[in-house]
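User: Second chain of the day. Same drill as before.
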Amino acid sequence: MNHTQNEGLSRRRVLGGAAGLAAGAAVGLPSAASAASTHIAPDLTRWRSQAAHVTITRDDWGIPHVVGKTDADAVFGMIYAQAEDDFNRIETNYLVSLGRLAEAEGESAIWQDLRQRLFVDPEVLRGDYAKSPAWLRKLMQAWADGLNYYLATHPEVHPRVIDRFEPWMALSFSEGSIGGDIERVPLTQLEAFYGNRTVPMTDEERGLLFHEPKGSNGMAIAPSHTRNGHALLLINPHTSFFFRSEQHVTSGEGLNVYGAATWGQFFIYQGFNANTGWMHTSSGVDNVDEFAETIVTGAKGGRSYRYGNTLRPVTTKKITLSYRTAEGGRARRGFTTFATHHGPIVREADGKWIAFALMNKPLEALQQSFLRTKTRNYAGYLDVAGFKANSSNNTLFAGSKGEIAFLMPQFMPLRNDRFDYRKPVDGSDPATDWRGLHSLASLPQAVNPKNGWAFNSNNWPWTAAGADSPKAADYPRYFDQAGENPRGPQAIRVLSARRDFTPQTLIAAAFDTYLTAFARLVPGLVTAWDRLPEGDQQKAKLAGPIGLLRGWDHRWAADSTATSLAVFWAEALWAPLAQAARDAGMSMWDYLAERATDAQRLTALGEAAERLTQDFGGWQVPWGEINRFQRNDGAIVQTFDDAKPSIPVPFTSAQWGSLASFGARRYPGTKRYYGTSGNSFVAVVEFGPKLRAWAVTAGGSSGHPDSPHFNDQAERYASGNLRPVYFYPDDLKGHVERSYKPGR
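Assistant: Same format as last time:
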């Protein structure tokens, strides 16, 4: 199904290098004669003209406050500022979204690229760009111009692959989130199918490895439950660190938005304006489905698939991918790919070809993503949600009119609930087909609930607003496949504790130290030890560790030795029981609490104590000595080193119920745990007559190690000490580090 063709690498940079130097002459940069300068001159004139309508002000944390005459000017400045802070992350995101990562990283990335290109076709995106509304084309053009202008004025920056950005490319990374949906396709099985060989699934693909949960926390509190009578919003995404850029973007056309923008996107993904705020959390809805297709091969080799009483032809498409060779050249590899009306074929199982169905609405998604940032109330936010181009994100909403809401993804296919869509359904049965989309009104939601708050922690929607939550019995089962997790009860616990929230007490709630998972799991361990007969060797050996955990209050702290022991114990218990929990169809937390045997619990405790002793000299080690934040360099995949500076982080993985999440583990050559995901950008917003907000970004705003803003927020991040946001011009007074035009 594939072929390889070698070719020499003859990639000529249009921007940067000699061309970039020539272009730079017009903006005061070193010049060099080049024919490319003639080619770039008209563009450069246009870029300089647009840059004149943009001002970027960096505050004393390095956060860019971008002001443009129009929305397009603001987008130009917004993406330019992002490129200043971390162009590498921008380019890498588009290498992934365009299916071109192998051009930078080699043939090992070819299957990831193929997976992406099954769904994201550059020619289709070019067509989408051509038919997009004029206002959106202006924004996409400004986005490309801002990036190209950055490259033209920074010849020292050498892109790995993308030397010139084209406006249509913005549609490949439009959020929604098609990217996360595509990642559900197991790469090993894609390789097995299109590579014509057997490739076993990895333990990670099978869900057997211990890893930090992907997701976030969002909380919205109504005026009835706040001291000042103003709605509050907690924005607490749990992502990989340094995943988004904190920015403030304003235009003369009504744009005035603050928050976190994923590198390379020209809209604030999680944030707020003066009137509305939105926090997205990964949803447990089932709206990405697999269809098992019955393939029939004709006498001449043509392939069809059964659909009811008919045969339909299998669609074929040739995809050619480029990749970097070990010698630095370039080679190509071609694939003939297959699809049915359900979607592309991604693997084979039990003699059936599996088609993968997901949302693929880049034009609608990009419009929804940008337009929500200009909404002024809940009704306006809901109007924008009518694009129905959000597939994987719940939303917590709060606004200046006192409105709050919990909403589920708007892209929800209507299906026959008698089928279990958690596994492949029979594609030959027309009854399994999607039947259009649910209306917004038919989705589970909690709008202005009487209980005064709403939340989501990537758990089911049935507890989102206490007694005012939507009821599971009223909806098809495909509206949830996540169930509950330990953060759910913890969120309910802190939200139910008071009716007089302030921004400061909401911050405190977001960093509450109670670990609900251990409050549930540790008593079973202690009981298992109590059951051992007196004189038992294991009872004597584990008496000290059991005594420590028996007296623990189940709260994390940097100086807590019980936190260290509990985390190491639970990790040791998790791995050997993961498959059994999966086979039983139970969540890991339920299985550990209800099915783990006394022997398994006690054996894991012994292993935990031994590992702590081996790595740290004893089993009583303060958690902060183990759990660390370290930022050594600007690489996307960082190398950690116990000998280099790091700071203690008191909170734990979200696995154990900590709302403040820090996904950390050992790395090659380390004994300490270093975090790479969890709390990233955190903000609390108060929607009063004058908006007030506080925020913190993991590490700092810049991706450059030589910048003073590379790691200046690390201590605040670890302690949950959010800094005031400078939202109004008066707020910025006295906090300006630099104000300038792009390119200068």
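The longest helix spans residues 71-97.

User: Great, on to the next one.
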